[in-house]
Write a structure and sequence with these properties.
- One of its GO terms (molecular function) is L-isoleucine transmembrane transporter activity.
- Helix content is 39%, strand content 26%.
- It is of the alpha/beta class.
- Strands 6-7-8-3-9-10 form a six-stranded mixed beta sheet, sandwiched between helices.
- A hairpin with a 2-residue loop joins strand 4 and strand 5.
- The longest helix has 16 residues.
- It is globular and about 50 Å long.
- 42% of the residues are buried.
- The structure holds adenosine-5'-triphosphate and magnesium ion (MG).
């Protein structure tokens, strides 16, 4: 299987803090990988370095073998990297459809006008919001705002989808729907990195997991093995002790 995304010696320092400490990682095309770790271990920062939201301190991000770490976020989006944010980021002055259509204008296929609106409506239907294109973002409840953010990410038909705690805050019924939605994207062959604290979701969605602790990769392997790894258990227990 060809490698879709590769991180080589990925490092991010914020002043004296090493948030991401020389991470190496290869994700084959179509793989779905969980990225776990206690609060503050560097998961969101890794996604930010992959998507281009933050510049890295050193290392490389390779997309289909090509270095992309020097490219701006919108350029990486055009190459097929899409993401959702840990805290939902939507434009409240635009309706649901236009939130998606706007990002499509700057996205992979540079779609405008009717073509963009059509693509947006299809994405809304995929995430369980059929016919809701005209609604104000402000009138959507929390799960529907999350759905909209996912619709915006997948509307561009990305190769790689980065989900930052997309399932957090959902009630048990919504969680089931959310897990099924991500599994459907997986079936379509999308390469996915899922940052998540909900173990039920990780077990169900991700055959492989990587665990970070204090910026370092401390485990990488099949999910059942990783979740019983004593070093991983210790990292989480340490987190609980200080929580
Ligand atoms: N823009 C920033 N400026 C300074 N420090 C930052 C910045 N972003 C993150 N950090 C720090 O880097 C470390 C890693 O943060 P990050 O948000 O990547 O953790 P995380 O694993 O996503 O945590 P959580 O599970 O709480 O979302 C933390 O110590 C955080 O305070
Ligand atoms: Mg985070």
């Amino acid at each position: 299987m060809s490698v879709s995304l590769e991180l080589r010696g990925l490092r991010k320092e914020f002043g004296g803090l090493v948030a991401v400490n020389d991470i190496d990682l290869a994700i084959p095309r179509g793989a779905v990988m969980g990225l776990l770790g206690p609060n503050g271990s560097g998961k969101t920062t890794v996604l930010n370095l992959i998507s281009g939201a933050l510049p890295l301190t050193s290392g490389e991000v390779l997309l289909n073998g090509q270095p992309v770490q020097h490219l701006a976020a919108h350029h990486r989006a055009r190459l097929g990297i899409a993401r959702t944010f840990q805290l939902v980021r939507l434009s409240r002055s635009l309706n649901a459809r236009d939130n998606i259509a706007l990002s499509l204008a700057f996205g992979r296929d540079a779609l405008w006008g009717a073509a963009a609106r059509e693509r947006a409506d299809a994405a809304l239907a995929t995430v369980g919001l059929p016919g809701r294109g005209n609604v104000d973002v402000g009138s959507l409840n929390y799960i529907d705002q999350k759905r909209l953010e996912l619709a915006r990410a997948i509307a561009a038909k990305p190769d790689i989808l980065l989900l930052d705690e997309w399932l957090a805050g959902l009630n048990p019924t919504e969680l089931r729907t959310g897990i099924e939605l991500i599994c459907a994207l997986k079936e379509q062959g999308m390469t996915i990195i899922l940052v998540e604290h909900i173990m039920e979701a990780i077990r169900e969605i991700c055959p492989r997991c990587v665990v970070m602790s204090a910026g370092m990769k401390i485990a990488d392997g099949p999910t059942p093995d990783v979740l019983t790894d004593p070093q991983v258990v210790a990292a989480y227990l340490g987190d609980f002790e200080y929580a």
